[in-house]
Please model this.
Amino acid sequence: MSKDHWDNSFSEEDYVYGEEPNDFIREQAERLPEHARISAFAEGEGRNAVYLAGLGHKVTAYDQSEVGLQKACQLAERLNVRIETAAMDLTKEWVPAESADAAIMVFGHVPKKSQPFLFENLMQSVRPGGYLLFEVYSERQLEYGTGGPKEVKSLYDPADLLKWLGPHDILHFYYGEAVRHEGKRHTGTGHVIQGVIKKRMA
Model:
C-alpha cells in the first residue's frame, strides 16, 4: 500500500492499532541483549518501538508514513522514552547494514514481489549473531477476516519465509492461529506466521 494510504490511515486521532505492543514482541523481548540497538521495521504509530525503548533499548522506528512516525514520537514523549525515527520505503531503500543488534517487524505487509527485498533488508540490518523477530499474517488470514490485507498478494507463504531465512538459525517458527486485539484493526483470532531468527556469523 502507498505512503498516501498509510498517511491517511494514521491521520485519525486514535492509534488505529492501539498503544500496547504486539503480544509476540512482548513475549520474546527477553531474548534481546540488554541495551540493544533495535531496528523496528514498518513500525507505523510506534507501539512496539516505544515498548522496547521503555525496556532500555535504543530503537529506531522505520516506516514510509511520516504521519505514523510523528504519532510514534508523541507516544514516546507521553511515556517518557526516546526513540529515533526514519521515513523510508523499506521495499526500495536499505537500512544501514549491520546497524542493529536486533530487528523486529510486526504485520509489515507488502506485495509478493517486494517481500524478498524486505526480508533481505531486515536481515542485512542486523549484525552477525543478532536477532530478527517478526509476526505477519499468513495467506490463510483471508479466511478469518480479523485484520490485515484483503488480498492474498500482500500476505505471506510460510515456505517463502523459510526459504529466505534458511541460511540463518531458526530458533522459533510458528504457523497457525493467534488471538490479537490491537486497536480497531486487529480484532480476534487470526492466522499468523512468527519467527525468531539468529543471524549466522559470517
